[in-house]
Amino acid sequence: SIYAAWMLETGEDMIEGRTLKDIVINFRGEARYGENVISRAVKEESGKIIHKLVLKESGKEITRGMTEWL
Fold first, then answer.
1. How far apart are CA 17 and CA 36, in angstroms?
2. Which of 14, 29, 46, 68 lies at a C-alpha separation of 20 to 30 Å from 5?
3. pLDDT digits (tens, 9 = 90+) for 37-54
4. How far apart are CA 23 and CA 58, in angstroms?
5. 3-state secondary structure string across the chain
6. What is the value of pTM for the model shown?
7. Max Cα–Cα distance, the chain, nearest Å
8. To the nearest whole number, what is the mean pLDDT of the chain?
């Protein structure tokens, strides 16, 4: 899905040279044609990365995910 691709584009500096071990994606809404989507990523102390896709105009979270890297 395009949502997964958007999630993985954010935080590339956190994952450079690493291999994806696990990914979990929770779809909470949808983006429609013409809407702007903001992708955010935060690295937790455990090393897992939490990803969020948010609609720019409303601030509504449409996707939340977690990735783990080796």
1. 29
2. 46
3. 999 999 998 889 999 999
4. 26
5. CHHHHHHHHCCHHHHCCCCEEEEEEEECCCCCCCCCEEEEEEECCCCCEEEEEEECCCCCEEEEEEEEEC
6. 0.84
7. 36
8. 90
